[in-house]
Write a structure and sequence with these properties.
Layout: E1 6-7, H1 9-16, H2 20-28, E2 41-42, H3 43-52, H4 59-72, H5 103-126, H6 132-151, H7 154-162, H8 167-198
Antiparallel strand pairs: 1-2
Helix pairs in contact: 6-8
Length: 200
């Protein structure tokens, strides 16, 4: 008999020997693969996903209590937020390389990544880390501001220098103009960078 490709949710629950609430739990926990129209369950893809994401430590418990659970009909009482005792139906299979899915390794990797994310968030809260995009925007604006500040005084500066003949006075005037311009650019750049970093 040909294995079905798609089944209704109730039919898939019956196939697994589970209640409809288990199918709801699978969906809420991203362990249910639906057909393209979203109305039926992709049988083979869902069963493979259940196997690949199963917790091996719960298989023995599931097998030991399966008949009792069916008789007491506790499936309908299971919370959609709490994983049922058996998350391994159908039973474990080998992956393409001949090995069982390494649940412990996957969980360790997840914990490591969560710890790194927590470290990043702590750095942001302490002010030791800022968003890369904010720094790039602030640096770009600072460079553009410096350019505008340097070229801005040139028309007036050219008129002032045209009337001067003493090299010492020309140097003094240029030095004062550039110092004033750069100090103003520094002040505005610092304020602009701080605004870019602290504004979401």
């Amino acid at each position: 008999m040909t294995e079905p490709t798609y089944l209704s949710k109730s039919a898939f629950a019956a196939r697994l020997g589970r209640s409809p609430s288990y199918i709801t739990w699978l969906k809420d926990n991203n362990r249910l693969v639906l057909s393209p129209n979203g109305k039926q369950v992709d049988v083979h893809a869902t069963e493979a996903l259940i196997r690949d994401t199963a917790d091996p430590s719960k298989v023995a418990v599931a097998e030991r209590h399966q008949q009792d659970r069916i008789q007491r009909d506790v499936y309908s009482q299971l919370s959609t937020q709490t994983e049922p005792t058996s998350t391994a139906a159908p039973s474990q299979v080998l992956t393409g390389d001949g090995k069982q899915p390494d649940f412990q390794k996957a969980r360790a990797l997840r914990e490591h990544n969560m710890a790194k994310l927590a470290e990043i968030e702590l750095g942001k809260a302490q002010g030791s880390l800022v968003a890369k995009q904010a720094v790039e925007i602030g640096a770009y604006n600072a460079g553009r501001l410096l350019r505008d500040q340097l070229f801005g005084p040139l028309p007036q500066l050219s008129h002032d220098l045209a009337a001067m003949t003493d090299p010492w006075l020309i140097e003094k005037h240029l030095t004062a103009t550039f110092r004033r311009t750069l100090e103003e650019a520094e002040r505005l750049s610092a304020a602009d960078l701080d605004h870019a970093i602290t504004t979401d």
